[in-house]
Amino acid sequence: MTADEMSRFTPDVLSRIFKDYSLKNIYDYEMHVKIGEGLDAKGSLPSTFMTLAPASHHLDVWHDVNRMLTLNGSQSRRKQNLHICCLQFDIVDRIINRYSNPGEVVFDPFSGLGTVPLRAIKHGRFGKGVELNTEYFIDSVKYLKNMERDILAPSLFDFAKQEAVA
Questions:
Q1: Lower Cβ count inside 10 Å, N or C end of the chain?
Q2: What is the pLDDT of residues 6-55, one digit of tens each?
Q3: Which residue, 85, 88, 120, is CA-closest to 105?
Q4: What is the largest CA-CA distance in the chain?
């Protein structure tokens, strides 16, 4: 399939096609640019997500990261300041699970909105972080309190277990 043919697809379809194409072929920068230029000429190049993310078979390349899954989504819905350099949950989760064990402390010295401590708590670790920006820090405390509340809240299964024991 040529770059011109690929640029005729809508971004959602093209994303899937380009991923498959890049897994079967050697990466071609010129073709990548040509597809992007074709989309841009049609006004179809999205500014909010990456349509043309190359894929890789190499285990050290994480090509399946959802770049939109960050705390900035919550910030945007709440009409709060967006973080300038938000971390994707997929990346943080993989690193936490790869380099720590449940019950250990995960520390982020540049915590921002608290993505690392938040995801650490979600994965059974203790999350700690430091942030100089007051607004980000206040927002991160809200996220962390909500996550902690969600994790500590009993479920219906917990009540069923208590009744079974009694």
A1: C
A2: 888 887 788 888 888 888 888 888 988 888 888 888 887 776 567 777 77
A3: 120
A4: 69
